[in-house]
Amino acid sequence: MGEIIFKDNSIQTGHRIKIPKAIIDTLDLKVKQKIIIRFDSDKKTMLLEVEDE
Predict the structure, then answer these.
(1) What's the pTM?
(2) Which of 45, 52, 38, 49 lies closest to 3, judged by CA?
């Protein structure tokens, strides 16, 4: 698995989750496509899974 690091970005808070355009393009995500985001606070990692339709 490749690793993409986004630097010099700021934290955004609220009810929406903003996914960087590079990730959306790489995963070929579409509007309203269902995804699951898993966050591991111990490892400080985030996993984005795309649900099959």
Answers:
(1) 0.58
(2) 45
